[in-house]
């Protein structure tokens, strides 16, 4: 294509047309591009636009709070209609609001100051332009930011992430219940070991994940509004008669947050580090789930249900790849890595303030986005699985040597009961089974030659690898 004036200055150094200059909204990262639909619910809580809307909400509520408590002389309580109009600034916050804020910030070069001016522009229409000076009264930017981030993270966790995670764990729990009695060969150190049931193993997963969700659900979301260095200095200097600690405490609690009474300029972010550690731990347990399910698929315990029209391999048409679990693994690793960085960065601030937290916190949405995407992929992957009970049964039937443990313990019990000839049970089973395949006939022959009591011999002769699962099916009840 011949170069025109329109394209002359929009090429990369390699001579290719610059995609960034195409006029299209081309995402740099996968969460805003390829996987946008999967993480879209987080946009209302953890995007830059959502942060600004929460900033507007905090500033509006602070104004209403100060007038409602008549903290400042001359600023009487607002009417119900005036309060509704103020809150409508938040509820009607839209794309044009985002654009307007960006235009103000281009002049102020300060995001929170832009929010203050944005609200101030709207007070004359409400008939309270005399209260313009009360917008952002006594506040430093971090007073607004820490509360806004707390509200955004709280909403994202409680309204989006936790429901998705709980639904996934419930899905695993149902699989556990459905397969509670399906016998399965265990593998410890990758080697055949005492059988279990598929349901019990899935129940272990659900139980582990549920513990983390319970911790996350108990998260305290802290906030503060105490001025430039956490001393209420400007508050006391301007209105010395007010009980500013009570004003601040009641305001933070009205927002649904926990008041932090002792801070520097910033809220210390310890609660964030605690939360992110719990979410990262959930991620890592789920990552282990993915690797185990992937391995079970590879040995045929699970059959994958093909998706009509889907391609497993560009050259091998027979393949149905476990891509949902592989995709989830990668996203869980990215999410956990970001959460680790956030947790370690946010608990540190030089003296009373530095801005490392400002840049770090803008990645909270990315960290939760990759986790949410992984949860979605695991859920979809599990939906496409069928349990191959014939494969599970066949695996058990070729590993009769796992009954060596049962025989040994029965011999020990017999010895304690006074039955003669029960010496060295471990060594005798070791000679029979270690590194060797033992079939049903060989195992039963061995049992019959031990000299066991009639009752013990009958129990062992009736035992098969598929029946040697103890009370595994009953243990699934712990999920209820």
TrEMBL record:
Gene3D superfamilies: Fumarase/aspartase (C-terminal domain) (1.10.40.30), Fumarase/aspartase (Central domain) (1.20.200.10), Fumarase/aspartase (N-terminal domain) (1.10.275.10). It holds the Pfam family ASL_C. Residues 349-469 form the Adenylosuccinate lyase PurB C-terminal domain. Pathway: Purine metabolism; IMP biosynthesis via de novo pathway; 5-amino-1-(5-phospho-D-ribosyl)imidazole-4-carboxamide from 5-amino-1-(5-phospho-D-ribosyl)imidazole-4-carboxylate: step 2/2; Purine metabolism; AMP biosynthesis via de novo pathway; AMP from IMP: step 2/2. InterPro entries: Fumarase/histidase_N, Fumarate_lyase_CS, Fumarate_lyase_fam, Fumarate_lyase_N, L-Aspartase-like, Pur_lyase, PurB_bact, PurB_C. GO terms for molecular function: (S)-2-(5-amino-1-(5-phospho-D-ribosyl)imidazole-4-carboxamido) succinate lyase (fumarate-forming) activity; N6-(1,2-dicarboxyethyl)AMP AMP-lyase (fumarate-forming) activity. Belongs to the lyase 1 family. Adenylosuccinate lyase subfamily. This is Adenylosuccinate lyase. It comes from Arthrobacter globiformis (strain ATCC 8010 / DSM 20124 / JCM 1332 / NBRC 12137 / NCIMB 8907 / NRRL B-2979 / 168).
């Amino acid at each position: 294509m011949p170069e025109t004036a329109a394209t002359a200055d929009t090429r990369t150094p390699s001579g290719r047309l610059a995609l960034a200059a195409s006029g299209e909204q081309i995402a740099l990262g996968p969460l805003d591009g390829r996987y946008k639909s999967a993480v879209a619910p987080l946009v209302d809580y953890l995007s830059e636009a959502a942060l600004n809307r929460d900033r507007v909400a905090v500033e509006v509520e602070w104004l209403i709070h100060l007038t409602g408590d008549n903290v400042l002389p001359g600023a009487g309580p607002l009417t119900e209609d005036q309060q509704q109009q103020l809150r409508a600034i938040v509820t009607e916050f839209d794309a044009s609001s985002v654009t307007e804020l960006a235009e103000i910030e281009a002049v102020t070069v300060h995001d929170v100051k832009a929010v203050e001016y944005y609200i101030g522009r709207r007070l004359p229409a409400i008939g309270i332009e005399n209260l313009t000076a009360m917008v952002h009264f006594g506040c430093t930017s971090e007073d607004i930011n820490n509360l806004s981030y707390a509200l955004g993270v709280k909403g994202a966790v409680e309204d989006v992430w936790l429901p998705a995670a709980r639904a996934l764990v419930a899905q695993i729990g149902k699989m556990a219940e459905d397969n509670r009695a399906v016998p399965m060969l265990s593998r410890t150190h990758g080697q055949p070991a005492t059988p279990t049931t598929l349901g019990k193993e899935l129940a272990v997963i659900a139980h582990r994940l549920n513990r983390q969700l319970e911790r996350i659900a108990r998260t305290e979301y802290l906030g503060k509004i105490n001025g430039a260095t956490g001393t209420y200095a400007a508050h006391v200097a301007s209105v010395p008669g007010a009980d500013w600690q009570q004003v601040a405490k009641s305001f933070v609690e009205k927002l649904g947050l926990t008041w932090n009474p002792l801070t520097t300029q910033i809220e210390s972010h310890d609660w964030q580090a605690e939360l992110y550690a719990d979410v990262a731990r959930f991620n890592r347990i789920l990552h282990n789930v993915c690797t185990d399910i992937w391995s079970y698929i590879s040995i045929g315990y699970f059959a994958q249900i093909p998706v009509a029209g889907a391609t497993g391999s560009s050259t091998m048409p027979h393949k149905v790849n476990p891509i949902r679990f592989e995709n989830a693994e990668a996203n869980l690793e990215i999410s956990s890595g970001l959460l680790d960085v956030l947790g370690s960065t946010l608990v540190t601030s030089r003296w009373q303030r530095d801005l490392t937290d400002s840049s770090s916190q803008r990645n909270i949405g990315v960290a939760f986005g990759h986790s949410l995407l992984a949860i979605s992929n695991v859920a979809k992957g599990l939906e496409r699985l069928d349990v191959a009970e014939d494969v599970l049964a066949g695996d058990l039937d070729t590993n009769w040597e796992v009954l060596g443990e049962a025989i040994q313990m029965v011999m020990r019990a017999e010895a304690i009961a006074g039955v003669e000839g029960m010496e060295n049970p471990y060594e005798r089973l070791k000679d029979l089974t270690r590194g060797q395949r033992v079939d049903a006939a060989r195992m039963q022959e061995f049992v019959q030659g031990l000299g066991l009591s009639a009752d013990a011999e009958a129990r062992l002769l009736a035992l098969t690898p598929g029946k040697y699962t103890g009370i595994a099916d009953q243990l699934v009840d712990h999920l209820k």
